[in-house]
């Protein structure tokens, strides 16, 4: 995928990441999608009441280039998409056309800009009716690799490596540890290999006079999908992606992850947890049980997530010790992005 994000914007994005774990931003950080909306609103205001959005006359499809494609891209942006207006009918343009055709419930879903697509687009522009980008079809991402072996404990899952659609880990169990709630929720689960290690770690913390609480483990593809979709509805697709994991891109779907907290921070998933006795103990000892602090401080540009002292990921003791001793990320350990 082409990244059209200037460095300053990228930094803002990093600073506003919250969502590797929390379903809603938990630690007072909110994402403000205003700048993007303002642009759209201003455009609309400027062009009301009669928007002048020229539409290309000719049939256009993938691999086409030039002014006509650019016009098409501008028209698509006018009705709510935010694609590059580079005059290249690439995967992104094809996605927008296809997504639009699907939302219009057109007879021929082709990804090709033809006469009937033109008429539908014309109508949308005239009626000022905005579409919800990606409501029908997920936006493509050329950087995104689908993980081929989601079962290995060193699997890398991040914004560039997604789990296969519908992947459900085998041997999900509820670890015998403390949770700050009593309901029997699916998020209590972990893969057995990680659950056993988590229990040992919690016992050891207990021996050290500390009280860890497990907050959130396994999260299904479907659950992640509905969380992401509701964030898209609330904030728009691009903003949602900055603070909320797409389905398949959440490490919680591996079953190897548990968010952990303590009484001192009200069982919340907050940065202050790193400063509690429990948080400090975890940083020092988690690796002995095969866990790493997956999103360390100062590595936000690599993990693409903010510092999360509560998010523990099982990788096995051998890798965990090396990762924690060297103060590196799983990405760096695996030499991947
Ligand atoms: Zn988490």
TrEMBL record:
InterPro entries: DD-CPase-like, Peptidoglycan-bd-like, PGBD-like_sf, PGBDSf, VanY-like_core_dom, VanY/YodJ_core_dom, Zn_M74/Hedgehog-like
Keyword annotations from UniProtKB, A to Z: Carboxypeptidase, Hydrolase, Protease, Signal
Transmembrane segments: none
Annotated region (Disordered), positions in chain: 22-57
CDD domains: LD-carboxypeptidase
D-alanyl-D-alanine carboxypeptidase-like core domain ranges (all copies): 188-316
Name of the featured protein: D-alanyl-D-alanine carboxypeptidase family protein
Natural source organism: Virgibacillus kekensis
